[in-house]
Amino acid sequence: MDLMKDAGTRQIETGVPGLSMIKGDIPSHQLAALYEPMIGFTVQGTKILSIGERSTDLEGPSYYVLPMHVPATASVHPDRYGRPYMSLGLKLNQNVLQRLLRDIPENLLPTASGHFAACEMDIEFMEAWLRLLRLLKTPRDIPALAPAYEREILYRVLTGPQGWYLRQFGLQESNLSKIPQIVNWVRINFMRPIDIGELASKAGMAINTFHRQFKRATGLSPIQFQKQLRLLEARNLIAFEGYPVASAAYHVGYQSPSQFNREYSRFFGSSPARDTENIRRIESTRN
């Protein structure tokens, strides 16, 4: 696609606010990350995204919705004709979402959504993405037209298969809408021990309700969420900032280096030393 000719294996932010692009053979260590709230559009190829114990094939052309920050691992693959993986991402703007929800008639919104999944794109939805992407050729039009195209994309998500799920995060009175503030707290305080009762109190829920809603929203328990944040941060410290393994473990909140090694190996599939050595080797060959 000519409109994505500037994309490469490192995500780039475009001139359209909130719109990013990426393509090619992206190394899996780069795809293990804390993902931002977004709508993703797999243009071609396939992304296999793993959140908790659930892996989902996102085969293009399709879209998916991540309504909140969530740690995940992934791999990408060319399409059946060998053409490279290509995707776009549009950051979720809560203000736009809430204004749009006030304007959409109730009968147009779905009353239920399935699990996180790749959603088929109809021609109208695809054209909305293309209109947004074409603005890169006419930057003078971005301030006036990008908000309208962003609103259209959100509208089509809200009235599509994942619409009910996304809507819950935009309704201030719903239980799911309270989880992002807890996630933000955990993101800031992930090195501290977690008290589930304290988190439930912050969310205004009973402990059992909070635990259920948190896992429903993120695919992870609060403890699993914290653990994966710690492991992702430790990986960066060892691979890119020169921390010894034990020092990185203590820095992110582990009390036992042996427990850290076990959990790291289980999550990333290799020991911290071997994994980060491989990351540095891969990065040394990239532009």
From TrEMBL:
The keyword Mitochondrion does not apply. GO terms for molecular function: DNA-binding transcription factor activity; sequence-specific DNA binding. The keyword Cell division does not apply. Pfam families: AraC_N, HTH_18. Keywords: DNA-binding, Transcription, Transcription regulation. Coiled coil: none annotated. Residues 180-278 form the HTH araC/xylS-type domain. InterPro entries: Homeodomain-like_sf, HTH_AraC, HTH_AraC-typ_CS, Tscrpt_reg_HTH_AraC_N. PROSITE patterns: HTH_ARAC_FAMILY_1, HTH_ARAC_FAMILY_2. SUPFAM superfamilies: Homeodomain-like. This is Transcriptional regulator, AraC family. It comes from Paenibacillus typhae.
